[in-house]
Amino acid sequence: MRAFELFSAKDSRDAVVLLARHSATSKVRVIAGGTDLLAELKFSPHSPNVVVDISRAEDLKSITVTDEGLVIGALVTHSQIMRSPVIREMFPALVDAAHSIGAVQTRNLGTLGGNLVTAVPSMDSGPTLMALEAKVSIAGPSGRHQVPLSEFFVGPRKTVLKADELLAEIIIPKQNLGKPTHFLKFGLRKGQALALVNVAASFWVDWEKHTFVAARVGLGAVAPKVIRAPQTEAFLEGRKITPETMAEAGRIAAGDAKPISDFRASAGYRKNLVEVLTKRALEGAYALARAKR
Ligand SMILES: Cc1cc2nc3c(=O)[nH]c(=O)nc-3n(C[C@H](O)[C@H](O)[C@H](O)COP(=O)(O)OP(=O)(O)OC[C@H]3O[C@@H](n4cnc5c(N)ncnc54)[C@H](O)[C@@H]3O)c2cc1C
Questions:
Q1: Domain 5-53 CATH (choose: 2.30.30, 2.60.120, 3.40.1000, 3.30.43)
Q2: C-alpha 13 – ligand 1 centre gap (Å)
């Protein structure tokens, strides 16, 4: 590991000041839980000269329901998501996604913000947040602005964040509070495994017509970044909720996915997984919708 200077931020405002001060002259990185960054610092030849530690920024650690929706601070850990009564009630899919990440030690330290900024296509928090049309709030020298999560990811390990910017909050918009959503992950093992494919599906139900409303499907590990499944969503809109519709949606989702073959799985196998998991995620969301009715 190469030597670097470490600065500890008191809060998000202080972190932005530190990033602005050092990013002009040095290669700067933020550290939150450190579960990804520490490995990178040890093994990557492109180490930063300056690291800004945001782990003490209390203003990034809350989970609140506001006029905007559910606002989750970037420093909220996966374990906190699993324990949050609000999230457990509104979005069990987020709890399932958090629970599928690494082991308890990783979940205790790893943050939601860190998971998103790392931007690996197999990240487990991505599909559910995409299916819920989440936005992120970015803090920078000229204040805060919001970006849809779908535009936050640019490619593998790349986001729109600039060197002097911080991911501050993740916002699930008000209109999607409590939207029935289901997350599924398939890895080579039950625990401590990256997803070969992960899928989340969300929709409202028009109970009179018994049709899908605002169906959204998020897919992970099948493209250079976490994606929505546009053809699947268009197919589902306004259709009768039947086992056949869900099975057909799975087949269409396999077409939306653009996986590659690698040492973990072939592209064909991943497409088969997308088909099966999308169908099951829709079934899971429907079961939740019925239970909530
Ligand atoms: C053993 C192990 C198993 C794992 N298993 C899984 C798994 O199953 N599924 C999964 O999805 N992930 C997994 N991970 C990855 C990792 O734990 C998560 O991505 C975690 O959420 C990262 O959060 P962190 O706070 O530790 O990020 P850090 O390591 O602190 O940071 C990660 C990156 O994000 C940047 N960053 C962090 N927070 C911010 C912020 N607020 N603003 C701007 N930049 C920021 C850092 O500069 C760095 O580039 C695993 C990791 C390990 C070590």
A1: 3.30.43
A2: 21
